[in-house]
């Protein structure tokens, strides 16, 4: 895909996020929207995957460590063809396979069940180590929240990954600056994030605009070319990106829009889609 196609796809992913959370009357739109561009680049450009064969042995693996942003992952998987886009409306409904957090047993394309914050990166490190032990060449990607990295288990996993020189591992931190209780630097500051990962023998990439496709592409290319150590991409993003009244508003971390708000959000995204299509 070219840059414009990726931008248009990310906008569709955002529509799916807002639709799913509105339909569920619950969920986490803010951090799903901030990561929509990264989700899109991973699944449409970066990773070796096949929606027709979700379990193919040589596929690249993805672990959504910040599992509460499942609406972002689900919307991306649906756009990529793993399951019908229409099913996004069943998010969190009784009997739906689209649970509030990723479930590897029931959702096509989900490689790891997640939701307990801090644990996903450990699973990703295990996958990356497994590939090294069996001489497989698949790569492993995991997305963490900047609030999530306040968890100690994150740094245990980082220490192990750096020590074992897992250069097939890419850790992405969605640094949108807000967590459920407020700004991350006021709740329990994780800064400087990059310096911490460097101390654990990671190659660190400072992605200044994690919502810009060109910068995202450059970051993942640099990660792929890094040998002998894992990579951490610190992606500076906008929480609620793409929806005017959600952007940089901590209240939209875990709240669903009502009918009126949903209409405004979808109009914002419709206009953005039209603007992109005119380029």
Description:
This protein is an alpha/beta fold. The chain has a single domain, classed as Thiamin diphosphate (ThDP)-binding fold, Pyr/PP domains (Rossmann fold, 3-Layer(aba) Sandwich). 42% of the residues lie in helices and 11% in strands. It is built from 10 helices and 7 strands. A 5-stranded parallel beta sheet has the order 1-2-3-7-6, sandwiched between helices. A two-stranded antiparallel ribbon has the order 4-5. Helix 5 packs parallel to helix 6. The longest helix has 22 residues. This is Transketolase. Belongs to the transketolase family.
Keywords:
THDP-binding, 5-stranded parallel sheet, Transketolase_N, 279 residues, two-stranded antiparallel ribbon, EC 2.2.1.1, 10 helices, 42% helix, 11% strand, alpha/beta, Rossmann fold
Tally of contiguous helical segments = 10
Question: What is the share of helical residues?
Answer: 40-55%
Q: What does the largest sheet look like?
A: 5 strands, parallel
Low-confidence stretches: none
CATH architecture: 3-Layer(aba) Sandwich
Class in CATH? Alpha Beta
User: What structural category characterises the helix and strand content?
Assistant: alpha/beta
CATH topology name, in short, is Rossmann fold
Give the quaternary arrangement of the chains: single chain
Number of strands: 7
| Mean of all residue-level pLDDT scores | 98
What's the end-to-end separation, in Å?
15 Å
Q: Please identify which CATH superfamily we are dealing with.
A: Thiamin diphosphate (ThDP)-binding fold, Pyr/PP domains
In spatial order, strands of the major sheet run 1-2-3-7-6
Secondary-structure element order, N to C: HHHEHHEHEEEHHEHEH
Specify Rg, calculated over alpha carbons: 17 Å
Strand content: 5-15%
Structural domain tally: 1
So what's the overall shape? globular
């Amino acid at each position: 895909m070219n840059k414009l196609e990726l931008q248009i796809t990310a906008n569709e992913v955002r529509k799916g996020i807002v639709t799913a959370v509105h339909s569920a009357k619950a969920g986490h739109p803010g951090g799903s929207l901030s990561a929509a561009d990264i989700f899109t680049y991973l699944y449409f450009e970066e990773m070796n995957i096949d929606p027709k064969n979700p379990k193919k042995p040589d596929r690249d693996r993805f672990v959504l460590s910040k599992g509460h942003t499942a609406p972002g992952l689900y919307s991306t998987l649906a756009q990529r063809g793993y399951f019908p886009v229409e099913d996004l409306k069943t998010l969190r409904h009784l009997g739906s396979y689209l649970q509030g957090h990723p479930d590897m047993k029931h959702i096509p394309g989900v490689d790891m069940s997640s939701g307990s914050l801090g644990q996903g990166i450990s699973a990703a490190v295990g996958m990356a180590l497994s590939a090294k032990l069996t001489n497989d060449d698949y790569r492993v990607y995991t997305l963490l929240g900047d609030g999530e990295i306040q968890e100690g288990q994150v740094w245990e996993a980082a220490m192990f990954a750096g020590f074992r020189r897992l250069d097939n591992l890419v850790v992405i931190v969605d640094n949108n600056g807000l967590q459920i209780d407020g700004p991350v630097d006021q709740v329990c500051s994780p800064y400087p994030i990059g310096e911490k990962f460097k101390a654990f023998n990671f190659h660190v990439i400072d992605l200044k605009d994690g919502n810009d496709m060109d910068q995202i592409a450059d970051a993942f290319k640099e990660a792929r070319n890094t040998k002998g150590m894992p990579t951490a991409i610190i992606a500076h993003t906008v929480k609620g990106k793409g929806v005017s009244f959600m952007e940089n508003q901590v209240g939209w971390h875990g709240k669903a829009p009502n009918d009126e708000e949903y209409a405004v959000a979808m109009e914002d995204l419709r206009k953005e889609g039209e603007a992109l299509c005119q380029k």
